[in-house]
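hey can u run this one w/ manganese (II) ion bound, need the structure tokens asap thx
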Amino acid sequence: MMKEGIDLEEEKREILRRYRGLLRVCHRSKTRADRARIRKAFEVAAEAHKDMRRKSGEPYIYHPLAVAKIAAEEIGLDTTSIVCALLHDTVEDTEITLDDIQNLFGKRERVIIDGLTKISGVSNYENSSDQAENFRKMLLTLSDDVRVILIKLADRLHNMRTLDHMKREKQLKIASETQFMYAPLAHRLGLYNIKTELEDLSLKFKDPETYDSIVSKLQKTQAVRTRFINAFTLPIRRALDKFGFKYEIKSRTKSIYSIWNKIVKKGVPFEEIYDVFAIRVILDTQMETEKSDCWRVYSIVTDFYQPSPERLRDWISIPKSSGYESLHTTVMSPSGKWVEVQIRSVRMDEMAEKGFAAHWKYKDSPETPEGKLDKWLNQVRDVLENPEDNAIDFIDNFKLSLFSEEIYVFTPNGDLKTLPVGATALDFAFHIHSQIGSQCIGAKVNFKLVPLSHKLRSGDQVEILTSKKQRPKEDWLSIVITASARQKIRDALREEKKLIADDGKDMLRRKLGGLKVEFNSKNIDEFVKKFDTATATELYYRIAKGRIDLTRLKGFVVDGNRIKFETKAEVLPETNKQTSQDKVVITTPGKNETLLIGDEQQRVDFTLATCCNPIPGDEVFGFITVNEGIKIHRTNCPNAQLLMSKYAYRVIKARWNNAETVEFEVGLKFSGTDDVGIVQNITNIISTDMNVNMRAISFEAKDGIFQGKVVVLVHDTMHLSSLMDKLKAVDGVLTVDRIESEFQ
Ligand code: MN
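ok here u go:
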């Protein structure tokens, strides 16, 4: 049978060949029942997709077969996963329904395929916020069954391998998404091979020229590397043979993507990195002796080559939370080059390559990798269910925790706790228990007293000191780095606000009682409207805080049981009538109230950032620093963009209230023609005409041009601009500009 030049009989034979190829790698599906389920899934999928073709023109069924093969062979998944991988596109693209799946296979299969269908349904997004949101949803489906995500990764990997046939813009979109979402996910799940391949393939489509040039340079330098490796490993091989080890030595260069990263992002030339590689010694040994065997090999390697003590990494005593176990050392080769040697057992190697999926062969390990995976999934779920962070933040947090390594610290009882790098004593306290976190006043790290903000290091023993009087503080948000601690602090602050609001509620109740007016929702609404608060709680809170002064309440009438504010009421007794809710007046010592800082209730000091020297009238924002409280920056400060994008959660709203009589320093620079008396004119205007105080002044004249700088004290931008106008009018002055930053 021939159709449009395609030999359909031959195609059928090829489909069967590929199916048998799949069966050969289904190591976990040994029983007759397992094989029957896989066969049935294959037949259902083949029938459902029989009239469909891929962009390449190949029969569509090649794709589910390939995805199932990746799931079985490269991730090591079970029969249910293989069945679902075979069926993964049926519900979306064919007549088959979820009910059919459930009837033919079962409830579990239905749940997984439902998850897979949903994921691909939401994968059409335009901007990065949608993308992040969809990724969030996708991870939420993890809570149903983690196999959804593993099969999705297999699906993505096969799509990346066959991306050639897609249109250019689709290639770019899929490649970016892979790099942004899927590679980090594979990394976090411990699927290092898949992660590397996804990254390399993304690069291949995003920057084909560079990719090809790296590939060809790697090929050209292959011989040099092989010679070096042979010479380097020869003495090690001899010694291992002598001691009767069964082993394999592998070597691998950096991935194309990581070479590209170095070249493009760090500007290192290829010639300096092509020979950076790791030598891996893989021991075929029993699980009971694998650790001691690894250390024996370590001592053999370091007998020949001098190790760098700072670069010893022992992940066999304490594996990474992704399940990675290995012993790494970096040694000096005779030619003076550092070489990383990784020592591990076959079991560890499989774990390293396939991640959690490799666990099935080694079920007796004390803490199962599945248990650890569950732990991780719980953490992800914590973040996912956090309604405060928007989706973009989530991706940032997620990526952060994907790439950062972890630290291991101990409780006074010797329990091991895993935290991300950069975690503080306060993170640790919240990690133990939210109440311990809330009441934390300090900690002892290795028996030494440290503040809450103390950054922990691996191996620290941490004891938390608590006090019943302690309450979570707003600035704690800048001390913690874990999402869960941040959330717990936010919850506690909200709780605190509620308690304060309760007082305000009582105050209002008494006030209304005094007016012989009922405390009911109509009357409360009248207040809410009058004071323009978002909610009644907000109203009570402001009353309790004294920002709405009930004793000075004016401009209302009592009509029976109702209180009504007259439309032409007098000035509101509120401190800041124009501010929207949640604005607070912040005072700084020695200055009047001049700045309104948003969102929270505490009175905090602030300082003005020296990088942009804001003055009243400037557009400003507050930034919560780690050691110096709130700093006020201008929104056009050179540092603003970085602060806002990297530490968005530490940025708070701020705006100037009124200038009063406070004075602020501001720098001005001048240029002009060098004219006798010009300095005199300028200083006269500043100090006499405008009555402005001068702090410092410097002039420099060269070749008939003078440049000058002066630091003056002004009230606000209006004051400043009228001063500048006057100065510009001086004969001989060419330019007058504000110095935006002291580094200019
Ligand atoms: Mn697919």
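DSSP finds 26 helices and 24 strands in the chain. anyway lmk if its weird
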